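Troubleshooting log. The previous run stalled partway through. Resubmitting the same two chains, unchanged.
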Amino acid sequence: MGQETVQETAFTIVQGGSVTTPRGFRAGGLHCGLKKTTRHDLGAIVCEVPAAAAGVYTTNVFQAAPIKVTRESIAAGGVLRAMLVNSGNANACTGQQGEADAYEMRAVFAEAIGVPAEQVAVASTGVIGELLKMDRVRGGAVELPAKLGESYEAADDFCQAILTTDLVKKEACVAVTIDGRTVHIAGASKGSGMIHPNMATMLGFVTTDANIGSEALHGLLRQVTDVTFNMITVDGDTSTNDMLVAMASGLAGHDELTVAHPDWAAFAEGLRYVCEVLAKAIARDGEGATKLVEVQVRGAVSDDAAQAIAKTVIGSSLVKSAVFGADANWGRIIAAVGRAGQPVNPDTVDIRLGDIVTLKQSAPVAFDEDEALAYLKGDTVVIHVDLNMDNGSAKAWGCDLTYDYVRINAAYRT
Amino acid sequence: MGQETVQETAFTIVQGGSVTTPRGFRAGGLHCGLKKTTRHDLGAIVCEVPAAAAGVYTTNVFQAAPIKVTRESIAAGGVLRAMLVNSGNANACTGQQGEADAYEMRAVFAEAIGVPAEQVAVASTGVIGELLKMDRVRGGAVELPAKLGESYEAADDFCQAILTTDLVKKEACVAVTIDGRTVHIAGASKGSGMIHPNMATMLGFVTTDANIGSEALHGLLRQVTDVTFNMITVDGDTSTNDMLVAMASGLAGHDELTVAHPDWAAFAEGLRYVCEVLAKAIARDGEGATKLVEVQVRGAVSDDAAQAIAKTVIGSSLVKSAVFGADANWGRIIAAVGRAGQPVNPDTVDIRLGDIVTLKQSAPVAFDEDEALAYLKGDTVVIHVDLNMDNGSAKAWGCDLTYDYVRINAAYRT
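Second attempt completed without errors. Output:
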């Protein structure tokens, strides 16, 4: 109050940073003809050295062909030289031919940049159940290496190339200090519809010049995913193609990062922040969304219980519609809390919309409707739920449910 | 083919039948002032003898006050003389005062019809978190007994009084033969939004003149609910107020029905049919819906697995939007099948929309888009999923997701 508080963070946000900011990475994108418009639909990130790599994938039973190929590449040696991504076609539910196409996509680009095929990962996003137009993918993959660069524009081309119904590109970059050296962690993501924990139609790519092994990177990526990408939902649907891949060039030149390294926590916090920014950007850009909704649950019996409750509230169509209509209908929030299947004391729940208390110890509190309306009309709405039971807490992110969500999804394919 | 097939059923559908068709029941409804419009908002079913009674309730942690009171009434002696229902206010999350109001609502009506309070059940539906206007409820409860009757019009008044955002009333009636005597089973229900397994904002009331004990009725009601009301979803939300109550007057005069009775199966099938009609009517009248969607899953490893998959498909916002747009986007169906958390062989799935095959053994099948469009524009869409693994099967019902769902829910309270 009147005095500034300086929050100490383990990292610095790098304005204008992108996936090419960490040392060793180039990126680019172009239009090869998979999208009906002239927007970019093929992009790549390439590392000048073999980068330690780790991936986290969709839990859907039907995993698209590129997921199989990327898993194989990372499993082969734990390193990647490149990540090739197309939009406009998911190459999912495409059978043997789809698998052959994903392998060929990898082989063509590997040859074009002169690296072994198993050091290339591939990702696809778009319509399910149609075969890739491979003549266009081949042409684009051969043309793409000449477009790669370290500039912000080159990184922008990549960010654009991975989008489908997204309205805006998503990127983030931070700097952390490890052994006294500056290390960058950057990321790009896409996702707008079919977004749901765990790992719904979203693609995420992280680059860093940190020196870290593939296994340590994988362990950390899983932890971070649990509290970031797995805590967003747009519509409850989980895609066949979700993938988050991290590549670490090691070119920052510090001692190898392990859990025992004194700067491990700083790196972990930087990575978490980058992933949180990318995840929230996906939620805010949810199909048809007009605002970002954040649900904060505290006082639960455990973090897991809090996570389940936060996900149920953020996924409620009724809550999402009410937020769209700027209607302080907290009854729908408590109804969602009550059906999450977690321990809840029905007599001790507090609910706040921003700073506006609507429920205290499970009893309605009179509030100013005009104030609530003004708050709910903002571009970010935070719903606070305190169960007053124990110390479990969680955050989840989503968006409102709007006419445009229906419009976009009623005729996506046609 | 050219020859008529006569399907033998255990029951006969009674056209124009309603909750007053079974012997012993009167019903009625009126406007007491809980709704802002002049539509009916208070209704009752009254039995001339103590009727064996059973109830099934919401699984939400926050159970509304009337649920507590109705549970107590049925637990007291297993019989009910009356069911009093108000719409316009759910009396949920209303604390001690709400509980006192529910008890008073019960007491006032019990006195008005001259029966013990514990032989009256109460139900409420509408907005959460606001206290009942008890002066209006009291006035209505005293006035209501004079309005009760056995006519179709009186039953219609009851059916109207329990509606909220519903566009149409829901009722069904069948006749079955037990010990050579005609027995009627009838029902009325309401529900449109916040509908989801298990037992979301829906109220259902079944009357029958069968002679059956409270415990046997309860066991059967639970079984039937699992394959009817618990298999519908409109929006994935589960309310605090769901309740299905059955009352059996016994006035048909046959031997008491137990599982050992030779006509038990006929009664069970008749009850299942009545509940299925009421459940499907709720799904078709889902908020903003333009059509009924039925998902039939077969070939699953178990009925439970099939149920979980059917519920996931019917609950997918992307599938629901595609059906609204008459878009044969089967990729969204298979994505939903794959995230249901059940055993699925990714290589053996068949999908049909009506008679139109779109996926065979997990491989896309070319189909006539115009034919698919015409089918999807109909008022009922059946999605068939065959996993080709074992004999597990299930049906689930829902509706499309439309602009009107958003419109209705963006400003329900205001």
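Takeaways: Chain A touches chain B through 62 residues (CB under 8 Å). Chain A has two domains: 11-284, 292-410.
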